[in-house]
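Exercise: predict the fold of this chain.
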Amino acid sequence: MEIKSLDARATIADPSPMDTVPIEAQRREKFGGIQAGRAVAAILVVFAHAGTIIAEPRFYGAEPFGGLLRQFGVGVDFFFVLSGFIIAWVHWGDIGRRERLPTYARNRFLRIYPPYWGVLLPLSFLYFLFPNAGIPSQHDPVNFVFSFLLAPYTKPPIHSVAWTLVHEMIFYVIFGLLIRLGARAVWILPIWALGILAVYPVLDSLPFPLTVLLNPYNLEFLIGIGTALTLMHIRVRVPELVAVVGSIFFLSAMLFGAQLLDHQLAARLVFGSAAALFILGIVERERSRGLAVPPFVLLLGAASYAIYLIHGLALSAVVHVTVLATGRTLPIVAVLVLLVVAATLTGVVYHLVYEKPVSRRLRVLFASEAR
């Protein structure tokens, strides 16, 4: 590794195709390698939830591959690290520039809420129409308000996967405070990390909402920030090796680390570190020498949020139809493949038909109002 200037906006020392592009513009580029990582992480989560729904007694009553797929839910860890990386990579230079806060808040709002509401509102309406569906908390009007806002609440959100988005919004708010308060407030980040580490042994006994604010998952946002700061100041040598090591580390822990998942803090540190290594290597490789990523992988990466949001509903619908149509005669592995492919394609369609056009229109609307 080669140490560079501590000025986050300094030009990259080594020659690369990006050297003639301003640093802020570089940080707003979409890395194809990151999109590929997003695609894989989203599909891992789909596999995890597909295995869970297949195992329900009302469907097939058996877990594919002996329950191994439950470990694939660690795709979420990659998303948390990546979120911390992207926010720091794009917005670290905005810290202390209060005039940038409205743009930051608008972009975060448009990224998260409209696609999420597009799933939450129909889902909540279904729970209203069918009072016996789901669990009682999914019919709670107060829970609907907190779920709608993605605010911490004592009950799980109505849309089950939104628990990750609650953590996401906490992180966005904290980083927004840094933009508003300036460099003197950056100490909040290490204090947050130390707090998470210090209270972990007694986390379950803490009052709400400290159990959310100090959850070990939040460490992965900070690991992502550290990854971005590293790439701002250091040239990573042999980035391909770093990316491969990170990938092998992550996949090995996922496949063979079932006991690791019982220890939440250790799991977050292991998977967070592995994800950070992959990001370090893949971003360095792409910004220095470029990286060819197939278009369909880029599409899956762009649709990863949509896939994450809607895959649970798609899995439920497809497994019901499959059982009705085949009477449980299909092999479980075939059902698994069918569910994963159907849920992934549903997410891609949701991205193309709703998420992308709605986001584009809202950005135009916000921009015109800003004038």
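Check your answer against the key: Residues 2-370 form one domain.
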